[in-house]
Amino acid sequence: MEEKLRLVVRGRNGVVFEDEVGAVSSVSKLGPFDVLPKHARMVAEIKEKVVARWEAEVKEWQIKGGIMWVDGRGGVEIFLGI
Q: For residue range 50-60, what is the model confidence (pLDDT) as tens digits?
């Protein structure tokens, strides 16, 4: 069974996106990075974009800024507009 991440993207008015994905990518002040299943816990200030990938699909959001929280147990939450 392929492992997945549970991604929740939240904007100021509530949940923008919620689904299981294979990977999440974004950009921090140190540069671009990827989050895959089994990623360690992490908090990052993000900018420019968020990209979710699963199966043959890709969803991309252009953002001004936000915070990404990776819980280390397969959960990723993104808070936009912070």
A: 999 998 899 99
